[in-house]
Design brief:
By secondary structure, the protein is α/β, with parallel strands linked by helices. Helices cover 25% and strands 20% of the residues. The protein has a 4-stranded mixed sheet, covered by helices on one side. Strands 3-6 form a two-stranded parallel ribbon.
């Protein structure tokens, strides 16, 4: 059983990595068979940052402040694992490279 999860994509205007992060977040939701909205916030953020229930999926901490391009874009595996921790699901399948399989 899954619990409602709050998902936010924090991004700077015209961030070149925001689309890929959004796609990976939607893919992780599909993989987990979840229906959750992704709220996008555009402004002065480390971009892109994906936040699940108040925690950055890459660092596991509250999101950093600042206006810069992140080089550590969240992976689909990190997103899926963060969604599992937040929502009570328990299984992720990954391929040899560590990417979540669908």
């Amino acid at each position: 059983m899954s619990v409602p999860v709050r998902i936010e994509l924090l991004r700077a205007p015209d961030c070149p990595h925001a689309d890929a992060t959004r796609r990976d977040a939607h893919a992780a939701l599909r993989h987990l068979q979840r229906a959750s909205a992704i709220v996008e916030r555009v402004g002065s953020y480390p971009s892109p940052t994906l936040v699940v229930d108040g925690l950055d999926v890459v660092t596991g901490r509250p999101p950093a402040r600042g206006d810069y391009c992140r080089l550590d874009r969240p992976t689909r595996t990190q997103i899926t694992q963060a969604l599992e921790r937040a929502g009570g699901s328990s299984h992720v399948e990954t391929d040899a490279s560590g990417d979540v399989t669908e």
